[in-house]
Design brief:
The complex is a heterodimer of chains A (411) and B (246). With 411 residues, chain A is an all-alpha fold. Chain A folds into two domains: 201 residues, no CATH class; 117 residues, no CATH class. In chain A, strands 1-2 form a two-stranded antiparallel sheet. Chain B has 246 residues and is mainly α. In chain B, 8% of the residues are buried. Classes of the chains: A mainly alpha (411), B mainly alpha (246). At the A-B interface, helix 6 and helix 8 of A face helix 2 of B.
Chain lengths: 411, 246
């Protein structure tokens, strides 16, 4: 009788409060389902930051443009992994393309993902890098020459006309890309928001809250990566670029905070029959992850720091430090947001009379170690992408500029 | 067409070529994959065929009725909803060769205990015993005819069949109340519990005898029956065997 499952349930039983139905004791969507919206959020956010450069012509962010695109791609490549691991049978996943179910929001994800990956991200990156790939391959030997030539699809045309066409395409794709990025992450919020039986999830605000938290996390991630990678390359951080990214981050955090606050007030004012159990949930089970991590450390503290930067004219080094700390705190906060949505929504009973608990495993397919692996994989992919497609290499001499992150801009 | 292709920028041609290749690969996969993997109707058909290929091992109760008198007895008793083969095992071969191939006759206590061991998840009134305490040295069929099973004597206590309710009630504020205090129990209920049911209170005033404001029972919690619960009967919200209000 003392199977590991029995022991786990026995441990959980002691933490159950009030009355719950027997099938509610086990939380089925575990940490992997928390990681998934976190990763897609970073993709959407990083892409929207990159699109600021191309569509809204924000010149200051140019040095981080290519880095943001590669970040979005590397996180997007890993984003479906937590779902595949959680569901099992990953080789069956192509079935959703072969037998599309148009009435299932979850099944439609495959198409949203494929559209975003193939039509938006890869295409935009390809047009951005095409000229540089050709130029690099001309001056290289060995394996890298062939890799660059293959990635450029063996195209050789670097005439002004061709480069001009590349630029036009990049701009066009970015314009399609913004609604696509909204679709990608708004869709994740839609999945949760449309579960009408669950009062913690069911809200029309859910897609838009997800979207803005995605933008916040994506900008913070690119800011963090830029501030880590640039000194590693022994280059000077472009403070104008960092200031601009931080100011977008600041506005995004304000909108995100207002939306979440609106959601909170709305729930309080509506005071549906679930309000008692939800307040119990927030005050007990989610107090640390929601009250402390998400709101206090992940939102109010960074917001306070950024307000302070605006009010007092801090010197450059202190500003960088505060931005850096804010970016990290925001990542923790957004991860806690995903945790509170996914895990929080499964902690209370449908009877509205009791709460269960979630106990994360250390090892195993759905455990803590697997989560660490999944969260570090995008960084490994990113480092490979940076090797193949360096976002900061200056194009070879004698060619026209192609919107690269120029050395001259940084140094 | 040729003009159009010539005008098209080189980069776009290459990208389109890749997309055409991907689309062609998708179509190829679609064509190469056997239809049984992609067509759900074929999928169902092949499943049905696979299942139908299994040998038939059961004969069905009607086949037993032709030869065995016990079938009629069973149809009049508590086991009427059980198929003969539930206890005697698959009997298709026996029905085809009755004299040589005999079905099994389960006489072990463990066999009956499979359904009749006490288990709180079984419905109230379902006959349940503790096999360790209930005549441990005898086989069940010595006292109970499996084709028409009955208790050997009429149960005197309600707890003989409603053990779970009795145990719950013992711990509740209603522990001191007899079952018959609230339920009317005709004598026939003990002999044919499913056809003659025990009665349950159908008036709010019944609970009001103890729980209304003007009741003389001081220890019972009081409510105002004019405003509390409106049109509902008390037991529709409060479980009388373990009322939650102290």
């Amino acid at each position: 009788m003392n199977s590991p499952l029995t022991e786990k349930l026995f441990d959980l039983l002691k933490q159950v409060t009030g009355y719950i139905y027997p099938n509610e004791i086990e939380v089925h969507w575990g940490i992997l389902v928390v990681v998934y919206p976190y990763l897609t959020g970073l993709v959407a956010g990083a892409f929207i930051l990159a699109s600021l450069v191309k569509v809204f012509n924000v010149k200051e962010v140019q040095p981080a443009y290519r880095l943001a695109m590669l970040t979005a791609l590397s996180f997007l490549l890993i984003a479906p992994l937590p779902l595949l691991l959680h569901l099992g049978h990953p080789v069956r996943s192509y079935e959703i393309f072969l037998n599309p179910n148009f009435t299932s929001a979850m099944a439609m994800f495959g198409f949203v993902y494929a559209w975003y990956l193939m039509v938006v991200l890869i295409l935009e990156i390809w047009f951005t890098y095409r000229k540089d790939l050709i130029v690099w391959s001309q001056g290289e030997t060995g394996l890298m020459r062939w890799v660059h030539r293959a990635v450029a699809l063996y195209s050789t045309d670097i005439s002004d006309k061709a480069v001009e066409f590349d630029k036009k395409m990049v701009k066009g794709i970015t314009i399609i890309g913004i609604p696509s990025a909204f679709l990608l992450h708004g869709y994740v919020g839609f999945i949760f928001g449309s579960i009408k039986a669950n009062p913690w999830w069911s809200s029309v605000l859910m897609p838009i809250v997800f979207l803005f938290s995605a933008i916040v996390s994506g900008i913070a991630l690119v800011l963090f990566l830029y501030m880590v990678i640039t000194p590693l390359r022994k280059e000077k951080i472009d403070i104008k670029c960092v200031d601009k990214m931080a100011s977008f981050l600041f506005y995004a955090v304000i909108v995100d905070f207002s939306l979440e606050f609106l959601d909170f007030i709305h729930r309080l004012y509506e005071s549906e029959e679930s309000i008692n159990i939800l307040s119990d949930l927030v005050m007990n089970k989610l107090f640390i992850s929601l009250g402390v991590l998400q709101v206090l450390l992940g939102m109010l503290l960074p917001l306070g720091m950024m307000v302070a930067i605006r009010l007092f004219k801090f010197e450059e080094e202190l500003r960088k430090l505060l931005y850096f700390v804010s970016a990290i705190l925001i990542q923790i906060g957004i991860f806690a947001t995903r945790w509170n949505v996914v895990i929080g929504g499964q902690m209370f009973s449908k009877s509205f009379r009791g709460l269960t608990a979630y106990k994360m495993d250390i090892g195993g397919m759905e455990g803590f170690l697997m989560t660490l692996v999944l969260l570090s994989l995008p960084f490994i992919v990113l480092s490979i992408l940076i090797k193949v497609l360096p976002p900061w290499e200056k194009p070879a001499k004698g060619t026209t500029e192609g919107g690269t992150m120029e050395r001259s801009v940084i140094g | 067409m040729k003009m159009f292709l010539q005008k098209m920028p080189d980069a776009l041609k290459r990208v389109l070529a890749v997309f055409v290749l991907v689309a062609a690969a998708a179509v190829l996969v679609r064509v190469v994959l056997p239809a049984s993997l992609t067509d759900s109707r074929l999928h169902i058909k092949s499943t049905v065929e696979r299942e139908m290929a299994h040998p038939v091992r059961y004969a069905g109760s009607e086949a037993c009725a032709d030869c065995h008198e016990e079938y009629k007895v069973k149809q009049g008793g508590y086991h009427k909803n059980l198929s003969c083969e539930t206890c005697h095992g698959a009997a298709k071969e026996h029905s085809e060769n009755p004299s040589e191939l005999k079905p099994k006759l389960p006489r072990m206590r463990e066999f009956c205990a499979g359904c009749h061991t006490y288990n709180p998840s079984r419905p109230s009134g379902f006959p349940q015993v503790n096999p360790a305490a209930h005549n441990p040295l005898k086989v069940c069929v010595e006292c109970h005819n499996p084709h028409d099973p009955k208790p050997t004597r009429t149960p005197q206590e309600c707890s003989a069949c409603h053990a779970e309710i009795a145990r719950t009630k013992e711990l509740s504020p209603h522990a001191q109340l007899e079952c018959t205090n609230c339920h009317t129990v005709p004598q026939e209920h003990k002999l044919a519990p499913r056809s003659v049911r025990a009665g349950i209170p159908s008036e709010r005033s019944f609970c009001g005898k103890c729980h209304s404001k003007d009741s003389g029972r001081k220890e019972a919690p009081k409510v105002d029956f004019l405003t509390h619960g409106e049109k509902y009967l008390c037991w529709q919200c409060h479980y009388p065997h373990m009322p939650e209000v102290q």
